[in-house]
């Protein structure tokens, strides 16, 4: 029986190719943008790195209504 831990996410900074596992990262708005409250040692906010799941896609019909 497999178990998925949804709270675990992977983060990556543009300064390196290292990918960091970080659970329970808070999300905050900084200058109108969503930022994950995790910083790289270089001082920048790290970006969410999740190659398996992209942006959630909503199916919509020809009238633009979300089904
Ligand atoms: Zn960095």
Walk me through what this model shows:
By secondary structure, the protein is mainly beta. The protein is 0% helix and 30% strand. The protein has no helices and 5 strands. The protein has strands spanning 8-12, 19-23, 27-30, 33-36, 47-48. It has a 3-stranded antiparallel sheet with strand order 2-1-5, with no helix packed on it. Strands 3-4 form a two-stranded antiparallel sheet. The model has no long low-confidence stretch (mean pLDDT 76). Zinc ion (ZN) binds at residues 13, 15-16, 40, 42, 44.
Characteristics:
67 residues; mainly beta; two-stranded antiparallel sheet; 30% strand; elongated; binds zinc ion
Order of helices and strands: EEEEE
- Secondary-structure class: mainly beta
Query: Main beta sheet, described?
Result: 3 strands, antiparallel
Number of strands: 5
| Fraction of residues in β-strands | 25-35%
Number of helical segments with 4 or more residues = 0
Tell me the strand order in the biggest sheet. 2-1-5
Low-confidence stretches: none
Silhouette: elongated
Distance between the ends: 32 Å
Helix content: under 10%
Bound molecules: zinc ion
Instruction: Round the Cα radius of gyration to an integer and report it.
Output: 16 Å
């Amino acid at each position: 029986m497999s178990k998925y831990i949804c709270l675990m996410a992977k983060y990556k900074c543009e300064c390196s190719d290292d990918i960091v596992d970080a659970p329970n990262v808070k999300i905050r708005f900084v200058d109108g943008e969503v930022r994950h409250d995790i910083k790289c040692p270089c001082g920048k906010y790290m970006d969410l790195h999740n190659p398996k799941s992209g942006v959630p896609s909503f199916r919509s019909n020809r009238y633009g209504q979300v089904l």
